[in-house]
Amino acid sequence: MGGGRPGTESPSGRIGILNLRSIDPFYYEMVKGLRAKVEYKMDSLNLRVLAVTSAVAGEGKTLTATHLAANMASTGRKKVLLMDLDLRKSGIARELGMSANPGLSEYLSGAVPVERIVRNSVVPGLSVIVGGKTVSSPADMLAGERFRSLLQGLRERFDLIILDTPPVLPVPDAVTISEQVDAFILLFRFGYTPHQLFRQAIDELGERKIVGVVLNGEEKKPDKYYHKYYGKYYQVANTKGKPA
Fold first, then answer.
1. Is 80 contained in some domain?
2. CATH number reported for the structural domain that contains residue 34 in this entry
3. In a designed cystine with 168, which of 3, 6, 146, 201 is the match (CB 3.0 to 4.6 A)?
4. Three-state secondary structure string covering 162-211
5. In-domain check, residue 6
6. What is the pLDDT, as a whole number, of residue 170?
7. Cβ atoms of 34 and 216 closer than 8 Å
8. How many structural domains are present in the chain?
9. What are the tens digits of pLDDT across the range 52-78?
């Protein structure tokens, strides 16, 4: 992975990124395997916009989306865009060690033009749009014409767009944008997420658009109370007294 020190943002504005080869070799091979399967599926069905999501928070969707996008771009076969749609708990900027603003929320509010939010990365062929400032009602912003037009324009610029969305069940954002997404990958954290919640997430999204499920093994046991999975998103969403 070329470029400067991983996880930093250079003075030129090009961002650093996690070095996949420095992580656990087994995990790195799993990422490559996921990339190969996703690439085959997307190409064979002529799909371009892929959302990575999960039933609840804490299942590893942001890390998976980041590594998948980096690995996909590193092959040199595609121009890839990684976009953070989790406007309540934006995580892409943190994973990449880059500034969180300006981002998608600033663009959707009309504060900045699209040229300000699409950033080139040190991985050739990979660009990034971070989430930007936390907002209390992102579902309304994502349902609007400004986001629809943005995504349509980005389809013409990139071969593959990978979206990191909020989890499906706590908030409506992922379902809100489902008609604009070509396909979903659903994360399932084994031993953490109750199976009934995973099944509910599939029902919410609809099986037709789910092109794959990623099993993320974890020894942590599931909490018996659903507020563990919903609470953080509801807290952020209601900080200004507005429902998610």
1. yes
2. 3.40.50.300
3. 201
4. EEECCCCCCCCHHHHCHHHCCEEEEEEEECCCCHHHHHHHHHHHCHHHEE
5. no
6. 94
7. no
8. 1
9. 999 999 988 999 999 999 999 999 989
